[in-house]
Write a structure and sequence with these properties.
Blueprint (H helix, E strand, L loop, with lengths): L3 E6 L3 E8 L2 E9 L6 H11 L8 E7 L4 E5 L9 H10 L1 H4 L8 E6 L3 E6 L3 H11 L2 E8 H9 L1 E7 L2 E8 L2 E8 L21 H9 L7 E2 L3 H27 L3 H46 L4 H11 L4 E8 L3 E8 L5 H5 L5 E15 L2 E12 L8
Parallel strand pairs: 1-4, 4-8
Antiparallel strand pairs: 1-2, 2-3, 5-7, 6-7, 8-12, 9-10, 10-11, 13-14, 14-16, 15-16
Length: 388
């Protein structure tokens, strides 16, 4: 009987289930104490998992939100070829995925629009190393929220440490996704509650049951098949060299046929290049638009940054009654017990520039405490950050 192993990989814990005939026959989990312990945790669980009488165990993995970011793609050309979309996302990975590091594995899928995932580039190597230690066959991996939403057909949220990823789905259609930090309880789709009271194994179970048909699933090549293909390529190259030697030694009709074949292939390549030229122009235009958006965003100060600077610079016992900020500057109405120190405190911080008092400074009382109300106008220094 075939033993299928599902792994649920997160930043702080690895979970594993063994599934036979659609039922969980074994489950276990191991805490990841430090980042370097992830490989040992995966290998430990695979060692402990049930083994089939014959053959190797097959392993599917669900990757948590801290290592797999799922996002809906917007503003890309109307292309129906997944390979072209994947190349576009891979070339602009830092713009589509702000938290990416440039070495992430990219996969795309069309589910009521184009969606993409960026998975930490170390995950495939870790899975292959753990499976090699335990004589297991790693089939591939998928983002946890993708597996859960597909198997449940409804909105799911999944926690990975301090990160929660939510994917809004309705049936087979995906509507939106979001990532945020919160302490809310994780919602698991009702169709996966058959795991029992401990629902933390839902991602591993969904990865096994969904298998390779899950959207955004990334297959890991079988090393035995890769070696066989390498041998086949070497043999093909050897045969090609022999054929080339025979062609060089041949004359007359053989040389003419070779020339005709080469001419036909060159014509085919010319027609293919003409077909791909419009798509190449669309990709170039999309990349230029993304660069323009990045340059525009890099020169603007965040209102949150301005508020942080004001909060840090203002003297104690000063309250911000009203704050208005735009790209050029802003104004703030303050209540303070030391209005005379406000302007000097705001004059040297690199963000707020040219602070000045607008209008009159009036006196007010909060109980028995005398306060001074004042309005300060200021400019916002331009940002020199470069787009990420």
């Amino acid at each position: 009987m075939t033993v299928r192993i599902g792994l649920g990989i997160s930043s702080r814990e690895v979970r594993a289930v063994a599934v036979r005939d659609g039922r969980i026959g074994w489950r276990d989990a191991r805490v990841v104490d430090e980042p370097g312990a992830l490989l040992d945790a995966i290998a430990h669980l695979l060692h402990a998992a049930p083994r089939p009488r014959f053959g190797r165990r097959r392993v599917w993995a669900a990757i948590g939100p801290s290592m797999a970011h799922v996002k809906q793609l917007r503003g890309i050309p109307d292309v129906h070829d997944a390979l072209i979309v994947e190349r576009l996302v891979r070339a602009n990975a830092r713009k589509f995925f702000v938290e990416g590091n440039g070495s992430d594995d990219i996969a795309v899928a069309r589910i009521s629009g184009w969606w993409a995932t960026a998975v930490n580039g170390h995950i495939p190597a870790l899975l292959q190393a753990a499976c090699a230690r335990t004589h297991s066959r790693c089939v591939g991996y998928v983002p946890a929220v993708s597996a859960l939403a597909t198997m449940s057909g409804e909105t799911v949220a999944w926690r990975d440490g301090d990160i929660i990823a939510r994917l809004v789905a309705k049936g087979a259609a995906w509507i939106s996704t979001g990532r945020y930090r919160a302490d809310d309880d994780v919602t698991i789709a009702t169709s996966l509650t058959g795991l029992g009271a401990d629902e933390r194994f839902a991602d591993a179970f969904a990865a096994v049951v969904g298998g390779t048909r899950l959207p955004l699933f990334v297959a890991i090549p079988n090393p035995h098949v890769v070696r066989a293909h390498a041998v086949s390529r070497v043999a093909t190259a050897a045969v090609g060299l022999l054929a080339l030697a025979a062609a060089v030694s041949a004359r007359g009709v053989r040389a003419s046929r070779q020339l005709a074949g080469d001419t036909e292939r060159l014509e085919t390549l010319r027609r293919t290049a003409a077909t791909w030229a419009p798509l190449a122009r669309q990709l170039k235009s999309a990349t230029a638009s993304l660069d323009e958006v990045a340059r525009f965003s890099s020169g603007r100060r965040s209102p949150v940054e301005v508020l942080a600077v004001l909060t840090h610079a203002l003297p104690d016992s000063t309250a911000i009654v009203m704050l208005r900020v735009d790209s050029a500057g802003g104004s703030a109405t303050l209540l303070s017990t030391a209005a005379g120190t406000v302007i000097p405190r705001l004059s040297d911080n690199g963000v707020v520039a040219s602070p000045r008092v607008m209008g009159a400074v009036t006196r007010e009382y909060a109980g028995a405490t005398p306060l001074q109300r004042m309005t300060v106008r200021f400019s916002v220094a331009s940002s020199q950050r470069h787009p990420r």
